[in-house]
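the two lines:
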Amino acid sequence: MATILRPSSASTDAVRACEHCGLPALGVAPDGDDAPVFCCSACATAYTMLSEHGLGAYHRFPERRLSAVRPSGRAFSDFDHEAFQSRYVQRDADGLSRVELALEGVHCPSCVWLIERVPLLMTGVARAELDVRLNRAVVTWDAGATRLSEIARTLDALGYTPHPYRGRERAALRRSEDRAMLVRIGVAGAIATNAMLAALAIYAGEFNTMDGSALALFRWISLILTIPTLVWPGRIFFTSAWAALRARTVHMDVPIALALFAATTRGVINTISGTGPIYFDGVCVLVFLLLVGRFLQARGQRAATDATEQLFALTPATARLLHDDSVAEDVPADALGVGARIAVHAGETIPADGEVLWGYSRLNRAILTGESADVRVDVGDTVYAGTLNRTAELHVRVTASGDDSRLARILAQVDESARRRAPVVLLADRLASRLVLVVLSLAAATFVLWVRRDTAAAWDNTIALLIATCPCALALATPLAMTTAVGRAARTGIFVKGGDTLEALSRPGWLVLDKTGTLTTGETALVTWSGEERLKSMTLAVEATSTHPIAAGFRRAWPGLMPGVATNVTHTIGGGVIGDVDGERIVIGSPRFVATHIGTPTDTLQPDNSGESPVHIAVNGRLVARAGFGDAIRPDAAASLATLRARGWRTMLLSGDAAGVTARVGATLGFATEDIVSEASPEDKAERVRALVAAAGTSKTPSCVAMVGDGVNDAAAIAAATVGIGVHGGAEASLATADIAMTRDGLAALVALDEGARRSMRLIRLNMAWALAYNVVGVSLAMTGHVTPLVAAVMMPASSLTVVLCSWLGTTFTTERR
Amino acid sequence: MSVLYLVVPLALLIVGIALGGYLWAVRSGQMDDLETPGVRVIRDDE
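prediction for all of em together
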């Protein structure tokens, strides 16, 4: 009987943690008891490199990156070419060269530490400075002492695959925006604190007997302080409110501008007349707090909107053009014409789509298909730009280059999807439009009620109402709660760009998942086994000396099992292994290999359409066991999906793989048959997701369509979804458009994300309830004529402070360690 | 109380100087990256 094995990630004592990345080390056997063990050779390389240069301190970080090093293996020779250098490299005055590189895999404090110590690893590198938020490193080096390609290879070996940074112009624009906002906040903050001091003097003076002239002095000082804060930092609220009114819409800035205007006008009149409340301290503090909230919100959301600009250059900048089969010339890759012949060495990325004319090699096409296994290519095969040539030189006849290549077309689609996506309408803005109506009608009511009794009091109370209903706390509720939630999510390995995605996620709709690398681990693993228990240790014995992926798969599947001792072991390449254990002859290998050795006719073999690679095991000339190898389902997938379905998500499996294997994985994980889609091209995937988003409705609160994927083949679909999620281990460069990136292994992170989004929304609602409660109290006091200067002075900051505390103390993402 | 006419403008002048220092820091790029410096000091070389 076939049984699905769930590979245990770390269950037995025999499993030790990889010395470099902390993941279970299974693939590489330890040399001795105390020798460090590693999960993969890439981690071992990185570990050795660091210890040799005295950077072993990295491995004592409590919070280092918990994911295996995944170098791209590229040679980066294009980084040295003239075309690349003239475009991306600057020469500093002191003769050093400087380049800005976008790095993959940067997520935590230890990354900063490590990357900024690259000068210690390499002679000739003067400085390396990292900006964690932009994943951008500025590297300064001496072009005479080392080459950029070498620096790039070092970064790649550490797991930080570099790409030329293309978002420079946008970054400069953002920087000046950021600086302008910081200047505003600084000015508003300085004025607010001093206006409060002046106000303190005035209130203190009310209880003691203050000199009339001193009181007037402080009132005039408040006025003089307030005018610049409104004209300079506070102006953005008035311009934004005016723009909204002209566009015949209403958002949060309209009631804010109204309150600021009413309070200031009243304050100026009262200062000149020398009686009544002046409100200036409240106005100044309000402007300051609102600017801080706006700054936090803008920074969070910008990362998501800018992403498409920063889609990494996934194809090399230059290509090697061949004349007469021998003479090679470096030309810009974009300039390659159709029919040109190019040479691509091993370790290089293919610069254009084309057809192989000469050579035989293996390609890694993960960037297009998500499949991590290499594919063989031969003369006549089609190759695509962006894929990596692994083993040998290829000559290629170009069929499409630059913007016409398949990769460029997919990326263009990613860009277009991202542009067409409707922004999430925030709860706060929906509330604001209603709030304005309520406030205006209440103000009108107050005026009408009072005007018959006392015209002066009518004006006073109407203005007091406008001030008391200022949605200051309401405007702060969302940015504060979201900023703290996003910060806490990052500590649990979930990187959210922009709080509005969390709000969208709190309305469950469709959850669309890619298969390879998302639901499955993406590596060769034992999926089915039918045979006796004692055969397992015999199999391990025979396979013990093999480095074949199948042998590694057996070892990973049964980590705690002690292998027996095998003798007379012989390996046949492309066939299998034969050996003796306890006097019994064991044959392990492909069905054809085993059948040939035990003498059964090979033409009786059943064709296999399960999508697995079958391995047969024979003992003493008799077929006794069958094993199926394939892409193993992640151990936490079934439970996580069940939880998410119970919370109202409808799940869809959207895969580019063959129907058989997709159906098997889908059935195992409980997808409804009509929700399993196989053989979908990247373009199909985007189209499907777009259709789901359209079906989800165009109402103000459409349900969320979330796409979870891991490669360029999913990138367009990720960009088209309401919320795009990139999972751990994916091609990070291609997932720049994902709203949420996970650095935690497995699908449990999705459950944590859903939970966190719900909690964040609950927190926002609580914040808003507080803010509105203060407003209601303020309104009733104002309508009955009870808003004294002191009441106003206490209520305004108190409501904002409550929201700040609430955001800070509320639980959103649990920060338990993974 | 007449001393107020001296110390209050003086206080505002000091605030103005401090604000000027802050504006200079922002414009010379010291506030461009608000996250990395925070994690850079996490552990220095032993």
